[in-house]
Design brief:
32% of the residues lie in helices and 8% in strands. The chain is of the alpha/beta class.
Length: 619
């Protein structure tokens, strides 16, 4: 389907996320003992939103098409929240908003900053803190996606070291400075994890000039329109400091004239500017590494090197709408920014919005990343070695094969399992820095030892909430799977809410059956067609070829890319039913199914529970 340039730019902008009681001032660092009770607060990226936004109830930013990530993590025993800050505001303004949200106070952007950028000093008021006890009893663990990375790093810098300029400006104005600007609170933040964060800016902006021009203009127009309508309750740009709000003392015409005559971009206080390489490095020059805080960073790459040109092009699994930007980024090198920073070949791999190398760790304008005592401020971590993480250094985690939006469960993610596994790992790493970690999901099945070939697949799906046992302690890996059970697994993999699918086309699927909404969901989405036009036979065991057909239809429905590789045909391929042959062959070429040790597929054999888990994980 062809989209207009304007629609494409809007979608690209939406996911650049798509890739975020006043406490007394403290002269010295407040004592805040690290505790396993410290919660995790997620901070969204550009054009994103959090739990305060009305849209989050329908489409959570954290989890998107795979369901609420915070709800999933909370079900594992963690305490998580998602902050809501200005979607296109600058890192500074967003940091101030994050502080006000954590404390339940009015946003104070600082007298000096407000004067320098010609906007109001104060913004919206948060009626209550995001969680109780912050700073007095508990610290916070911050997780930022995309521009949420710059937001949280700026936030920590102000928490730790404050701003002498803002303190002086507030006193000169005869007002009290925000406690955010007095510093001495680095212990209020225990850890910081950055997900696909453009620490050092992104070449997406410079290599996609036309798209960015349209996107920024469109974003500003939307911000003004949303800011003075009821849509603000659904999605709020939070630009009151720039006068973008509905004044009850004005007529509609007066509000329209005032708001639409405002030139937001001319204030040079926005995310689009902060995401440029030069501005990012300027921000980085004012931010250090705090010796008591734990730092983790995850980068993504969904490009491959073109053997002809040597440039980097999108992989088959990248979201199609990322292609134009990713292609331009993949060939953009050997250039200098306006500020004199040299962009070399290492900047070509990317996740569709952010350069992989930029997401590793933040550097200063001189190209260094150093601790306060002058040592190297980062180290690579392989992701599996059993080590004790230390504060005061960036741990660069293994590069993930995700595009920018897949990191938050967005379009064409293709695997709820992989996304949930990533964030379980994030949580485990965060809480491994405490003496005692909170209890997550314990693998309970005594009949699936670690030595069993299917153990990792069953464990992966169990922890993701896709499958359960046949009892509290057994899984019965070699047990059979019914057609209804496999459909239920597929629904769990997709993370869909099936409550609206109580009725369907099959006469043998009564509305009050536990499996009815799952089967009806699968029928409505053309994943299953039944054993006849009117029957599904839900309690019959599923054959291996029927399992392949459902899995293939699921991949088609949810746009899961199936790789193509040369394989040896199954020895019994001629016995596969005509309706299943193309599905089996496609999944075989994609490496999702591999058949039996003797080279056969055994299409009519009953699929086992461990086989079902394996193919779901391999998708």
């Amino acid at each position: 389907m062809k989209h207009s340039k304007r629609f494409l730019c809007l979608l690209l902008t939406l996911i650049l996320a798509a890739s975020l009681c006043v406490f007394p001032a403290a002269a010295a660092d407040r004592t805040c003992p690290s505790s396993k009770d410290d919660p995790v607060v997620f901070v969204h990226g550009l054009m994103g939103w959090g739990q305060r936004a009305g849209i989050n109830a329908v489409l959570p930013y954290w989890g998107m098409t795979t369901g609420s990530l915070t709800s999933y993590l909370n079900s594992l025993g963690y305490e998580t929240y998602s902050a809501t800050v200005g979607p296109i505001s600058s890192a500074w303004d967003r940091a101030c908003e994050l502080y006000a949200q954590l404390t339940g106070t009015t946003v104070d952007y600082g007298a000096a900053h407000a004067a320098a950028h010609d906007h109001a000093r104060y913004g919206i008021t948060y009626d209550q803190p995001l969680f109780s006890g912050w700073g007095t009893k508990r610290a916070v663990n911050l997780v930022g996606h995309s521009f949420g990375g710059a937001t949280t790093r700026q936030f920590l810098e102000l928490m730790a070291n404050g701003s002498a300029e803002e303190v002086a400006a507030a006193k000169a104005a005869g007002t009290t400075p925000s406690p955010l600007f007095t510093g001495g609170k680095s212990s209020w933040v225990h850890s910081m994890t950055e997900i696909a964060a453009p620490h050092n800016g992104t070449t997406f902006i410079e290599s996609n000039g036309t798209i960015m021009d349209v996107a920024t203009n469109l974003s500003e127009t939307l911000a003004k329109g949303f800011g003075i309508t009821e849509i603000k309750n659904l999605y709020d740009f939070q630009l009151e400091q720039f006068g973008i709000y509905k004044d009850p003392n004005e007529t509609v015409l007066e509000t329209l004239q005032r708001v639409f005559s405002t030139d937001f971009m001319s204030h040079n206080d926005n995310a689009f500017l902060d995401l440029t390489i030069d501005k990012s490095l300027e921000i980085n020059d004012g931010i250090g590494i705090e010796p008591n805080v734990y730092y983790f960073s995850y980068a993504g790459n969904q490009t491959v090197q073109d053997p002809v040109s040597g440039n980097y092009i999108p992989s088959a699994k990248m979201w199609t709408l990322f292609y134009p930007g990713a292609i331009n980024m993949g060939k953009y090198y050997d250039k200098y920014t306006a500020g004199g920073f040299y962009i070399d070949k290492s900047w070509r791999p990317n996740d569709g919005m952010v350069n992989t190398v930029s997401a590793f760790y933040p550097i200063h304008s001189d190209g260094t990343c150093l601790t306060k005592d002058g040592k190297q401020g980062w180290t690579n971590y392989d992701g599996y070695s059993n080590i004790n993480f230390k504060p005061g250094i960036w741990y660069v985690m293994p590069v993930q094969s995700f595009d920018h939006i897949q990191f938050v469960g967005g379009m064409l993610n293709g695997s709820l399992v992989k996304m949930h596994a990533l964030y379980r790992g994030v949580m485990e790493d965060i809480y491994s820095t405490y003496t005692t970690a909170p209890t997550g999901t314990v693998f309970p099945f005594t009949d699936v030892p670690e030595s069993r070939w299917s153990y990792p697949y069953i464990k992966e799906l169990y922890e993701a909430g896709v499958v359960s046992g046949t009892s509290a302690t057994t899984f019965e890996p070699t047990g059979s799977v019914t057609r209804a059970q496999f459909v239920t697994m597929l629904a769990g993999l997709a993370g869909v809410n099936v409550s609206a699918y109580q009725y369907g086309p099959f006469s043998d699927v009564p509305a009050d059956a536990w499996y009815a909404p799952y089967v009806n969901w699968a029928a409505a989405n053309h994943i299953v067609s039944g054993t006849s036009a009117a029957t599904f036979d839900p309690n019959a065991t599923i054959s291996r070829q029927d399992m392949a057909v459902m899995l293939y239809n699921y991949a088609q429905r949810y746009d899961v890319t199936l790789n193509e590789q040369t394989v040896t045909p199954f020895t019994d391929e001629s016995t596969i039913a005509d309706y299943a042959l193309s599905a089996v062959q496609a999944l075989h070429r994609a490496g999702v199914i591999s058949g039996m040790p003797d080279g056969s597929f055994q299409p009519y054999a009953t699929a086992t529970r461990e086989q079902a888990c394996t193919v779901l994980c391999m998708l």
